[in-house]
Structures are given as C-alpha cells and as structure tokens.
Amino acid sequence: MVNLPGNCGSCWVASADPTGYTPLDASIHAETVVVGGGIVGLTTALRLRETGRPVILVEALEIGRQVTGRSTAKITTQHALIYRHLIDTCGLPTARSYAEANSAIPALIKDWTREYAIACDLERKDAYTYATSAEGRDKIVAEAKAAREARLQAEVLDRAPLPFETTGALCFADQAQFNPAKYLVGLARAVADRGGRIFEKSRAVLIGEAGRWRVVTAGGTVHAENVVVATNITVKSPVGMANRTQPRCHTALAFRVDDPLVVDGMFISTDDPMHSIRTGRDNTGPLLVTLGPKFNTGQDGNVAARFVELEEWARRNLPVGNVAWRWCNEDYDTADRIPYVGEPDTDKAPGFYIATGFNAWGISNGTAAGMMIADMIQGRPSPWRSLYDPTRSYPKEFHKNGDSQSIVRSTNDIRPGEGGVISRGDERIAVCRDTDGTLHAVSATCTHKGCTVTWNNADCTWDCPCHGSIFASNGAVIHGPARKPLVPVEL
After folding, report:
1. pLDDT tens digits, residue range 32-52?
2. What are the respective helix, strand and coil percentages of the chain, to the nearest 5?
3. Are 8 and 326 in contact (CB under 8 A)?
4. Is the pTM higher than 0.90?
5. For helices 105-115 and 362-377, what crossing angle results, to 10°?
C-alpha cells in the first residue's frame, strides 16, 4: 500500500458548504434540461433563469465536488503559451476570438459573486507564465508578441516573482482566482432561488429523443425541448467526441504555509516538467497549491510516484510546510487547444448541446461555453459559435488509446491496499485488496467502449486508458463517459 501525505481530496471541496438537493424521483418537464452541475451546466442554468426560461439541472453526484471543484480555479486569459500557438495554427482571427471569449469572463464572475452574495474567496491576482531556461524565455517573448496581436495586455519581465531562479516571465495583470467549489454552490443556490430545479445524485443513464428530449435517471425522467450535456466529456452526442479529445490528469498538492502571500500571483511554467502554483485556503488556514505535469488517464501504472515527485519539487523550490490535501483532476485536451461547444448536429438533433475539451482551462472557457449555449437556446447570436464549433475538423491520429497498466498473474500478486487485473479465460477481472486482506472484484471491462481499466494507486480508483472513465474501487461510476458501473464478479 502506498502511503501519501495529506488528506485525499480537494482543498476547495473540503471548505465548501454542503448542498443537499434531493434526487429526481418523478417524471417532470422543462424547456431545458442540463446534465451536469459543473461550471458549464450551472452557468447555462443561471443565464437561462435570469431571463425567466424554465430549466432543470441533474447532477450525478453532488454540486461542486467533481471536475470544476478540483481545478486550479484561475480566472484568466493567460493560458500558458496559447496565443502563439493559435496564431500559427489557426490564424489571428481565431486567436482574437479566443481572447475575446475568455476576456468576457472575469466581469461576469465578479458581477455574479456580488449580485448573488457568493462568498468564494474571489481575489485579484496577476497571472504569470515563467521560464527556467533560455529557450523558455524565447517562447515567452514570442507569446508576448502574439498576445498583443490578439489585443491583450502582456508584459515581459526579467524574472518571475518566485523564490527560485527564473529566466523570465510573461505577466497578465489584473486577473483573478477563487474557490471553485464555493462558487458552484453559490451558483446553484442562485439558480434555485430564481425558480430553477436542481437534483443531485441523479446520474443520467439514458439521453434520448421521444418527440422531446428525455433524460432518464434511476429515479425519474426529465422531458425537455433542449438538452445540455455538460459532463466534461460528453456521455452522449450525435457527433462522437471521444476520439476528438484526449483524457488527461494532473496531480495537485496543497501545502500549509504561514504567510498567505508566500507567493503572490498565479504561475505556470513554460519548461517541462510543467508546474503550476497559486495560493488558496481551507477552513484551517492559508495554503500553497501546486500542480504537476499532465499524464494520460489510465496510462500510468504508478500515479502515487507523481505525488512523490511533486512534493520533492515543491520542497526544493518553495517555502512550504506539511501537505494538507492531495488530489488528481481530469480534463480532456483537443488537438487545436480550443473546446468543442454548441450543437453538433442541428438537422438530426436540434436542441442538443455539448461542451467538452477544455484543455485544463475550463473556468474561463467553461463560463464562456455556458454563456454561449444559453444564448443559442434563446435564439440570440453569439460571436463565439465558429470558435467553439464542435463539428470542426481534427487530426484522426490525435486520440491515443492505451492498455491497462495493472495486469498481474494472480491475486497473490496484489498487496494490501493495491489493485490488479487478472485473466480468467477470456474475462478480465479488476481486483483490489483491502488492508485487512479482503479481496473485491469487478469486471475490468469499461462499460463505455470495452477497454481494460488500470488501477490508480493514489486515488484507489479504476481508470480507463482509452476514453477516461473513472470508477470507484467497487465499480461505481465517478466520471464518464461511462454511465454504467463495472459489474461485480465472483472470484
């Protein structure tokens, strides 16, 4: 068993208030049903309720506890080295549209936190991309030029305001950060106060069409003219998204610090291995949050080692104390680094909307996505429709499936606190062993597309190396695109 420091979980989630919305238990109707209570879903729902449009939101687990609540929660137009890439690969108009979409977000979030009295630790911070090599500095200079061409303010500095040596930094001033879980809890309360209906622990097991769209959960059904699938990766779409995106994870550690301004700003590195840094707090006190480099979901057989490496890096470079929290978060990358948002098929599936592929910048892009979808439902024009077009072309070789990294010969090879995949004839079985030696077994076949899962030895989950579904050790779905649990197996 791997012993890692700190509490397993997001510091943001740990300090957010509970919600307590009831599960769906009836057949009901609304103009729009939103599937997923993250930043896309709740932004869409609140924008619709602000104009009096009927909306119902169903969340598979609990509001704020999933992907958004485990993000770094930077509210910024500075997305590492994005603008040089966009200009070179997509053209200057696309780069300007991306900058415009993400620039509109801070004002909306600030307005909503004030109007709806959302206490989410929102604070102004400068955002920095920093370099530790000469090559990295050259990239920063090029990015600064690109950002200005995209009509953004960006300043090149000789060094980053960090307690270790850097070769330069690119500063986007007057950005912001917050606690994303607290923010989502506040958005949900605002939706409910305005007459929207929210149901938690109501996983969509079927999304189909029967005259109107219908979303079926274990306890009930919602019928609607519009359905918004805001589940990070789409659990259903008339145009397949699984192979247009690549599931990836990163590790995060939140350290105790004495000084809440031990680092003043939000930081991400240009050089590999990538690291991201920001401050925050939980109910105990100030924290310094660090992230490690990304890795493909389910394609690493020793995720715990990534936490060890991240802690070693932080202690070499930052004045940190004990580890308070640790977690993994998952997102989906796209080949061009732009999300897919909108109606994938307006002819065959009118009123069906998706949002996915946020490339780890889902706070601003996700808010923009929710704004755009709400406008589309109301028949309003949006300047970002072509930017986020979910049917745009993509390289067919972009998505890379992987194989299970947890194959063992027998259960004798599985130590207490660990998991492995064994074969029984043509059947693959995912087996984990409790610390007391008790074995638990489920099918190792992902219920989405049939790939064999990998044991995540840090989170004690079964992760799919193909399309990123994550299951609890008992097989329950934590994160789609899978909608059905792994089937229990008798050993």
Report:
1. 999 999 999 999 999 999 999
2. 25, 30, 45
3. yes
4. yes
5. 80
